[in-house]
Amino acid sequence: MEKMNISINPDDLQDIKCESCGGEFFSHSFMIKKLSAFQSPTGKAMMMPLQVFRCDNCGEVINPEV
Q1: Using one digit for the tens of pLDDT, what is the confidence trace for 22-53?
Q2: CB 52 within 8 A of CB 64
Q3: 13, 24, 26, 57: most buried, per Cβ within 10 A?
């Protein structure tokens, strides 16, 4: 299978802004979700980290569906 080289100009992309405050800068954060033993592939309850983006200005976690 041949690799495709795609050139994307960042200036052509849409900026994402915080819906709460209009901030444009975000940091990685993690939410921790509990997975029940019934749902877990190991059969034991476990915690799962879920990476999210948090607004640097107001702390709001942005919706991952853009």
Answers
A1: 999 999 999 999 999 999 889 999 999 999 99
A2: yes
A3: 26
pLDDT band at 1 (very low <50, low <70, confident <90, very high): low
> Positive or negative, the Cα torsion across 7, 12, 14, 16?
positive
Q: Rounded to an integer, what distance in angstroms lies between the CA atom of residue 27 and that of residue 25?
A: 7
Domain boundaries defined on the chain: 28-66
- Quick one: pLDDT at residue 3? 81
What is the C-alpha to C-alpha distance for residues 29 and 21, in angstroms, rounded to an integer?
18
Given the structure tokens 């990476």, which residue do they identify?
51
